[in-house]
Amino acid sequence: MGRQPCCDKIGLKRGPWTIEEDHKLMNFILNNGIHCWRMVPKLAGLLRCGKSCRLRWINYLRPDLKRGALTEMEENQIIQLHSRLGNRWSKIAAHFPGRTDNEIKNHWNTRIKKRLKQLGLDPVTHKPIEQKEKTDEKLEAVLPESSSSKDEAAESLEVKSMDNHAQTDFPGKYMKQDEVELTSDETTSLLNSYEMLCGNLDVGLWLNQDANTTTNTCSPSFSMEGSLNPSMVKPSSLQENTLQQNFLQQWVNSVDSFLPWDGFNHIEEELLFLENSQ
DNA sequence: AAATCTGCCAACCGCCTCGCT
DNA sequence: TAGCGAGGCGGTTGGCAGATT
């Protein structure tokens, strides 16, 4: 039998992406947005499968990605979240705007696991290694039958125990519950900018507001659906042009510092258009 | 200087979930 | 309600770079 492949892989390219492919994908998405990943490679002129394009965009090309190594503070947050969520990397990554689940997963597997082991903690249970067996026995005794309900119970037990754990057994290693929700101002600001650029916000409303207040109004959550078309925010007056131009320039400057290549031709074109139309 | 080892991370694979018909 | 397809997710791997022998 076998499962149907996600796409026809005959003649499709695999392996590392070239700069040219990155340009094609980036320009296509910025121009057209994402409606159907399966169609993206065809329309963008790429010999890749849709899944590959999606992964490349999410893990590498997305303009809101935060570059650089994870900080110790972020590591601590990951440890705490992992203790409650397990290997649900996407859920964990959702607490770190600009970080990808792949990045966090890699970091966990290559560094944090070792760090925990060095501290004498089991990376799976987050408990001192010698306590693991006792806990397992306890679960067996309480939940001898249903495996799914056992999982659920284990999860809830884990949550409770970790909350205590964090505050008693390992003072200073974990942060308080409410601190997990904190996000970097820098990242949030960048996300806000990006959402504005992509037209997630009501531009008319935005233009009517004091420019200083708009950067604090967005949700830190990042939504790509139907939001990646800068033409949606094409200005219609001189005033809008100026605001738009300032904004785009700021945004390009802020993003440019951590991009591996000069990948914002489209936005630069947009800037040229704005300059010329004044 | 060459061979081998180790760590890191981008990318792939295949299963799961969800929405649509 | 079942079947199907697309997107999402987590586990795993391949290859590169730097370190070590």
Automatic annotation (TrEMBL):
Residues 9-61, 62-112 form the Myb-like domain. Residues 125-140, 148-158 have a biased composition (Basic and acidic residues). GO terms for cellular component: nucleus. Residues 9-61, 62-116 form the HTH myb-type domain. GO terms for molecular function: transcription cis-regulatory region binding. The keyword rRNA-binding does not apply. The keyword DNA-binding applies. Residues 125-158 are annotated as: Disordered. SUPFAM superfamilies: Homeodomain-like. SMART domains: SANT. Keywords: DNA-binding, Nucleus, Repeat, Transcription, Transcription regulation. CDD domains: SANT. Gene3D superfamilies: Homeodomain-like (1.10.10.60). It is found in: Nucleus. GO terms for biological process: carboxylic acid biosynthetic process; regulation of DNA-templated transcription. It holds the Pfam family Myb_DNA-binding. This is Uncharacterized protein. It comes from Liquidambar formosana (Formosan gum). The lineage of its organism: Eukaryota, Viridiplantae, Streptophyta, Embryophyta, Tracheophyta.
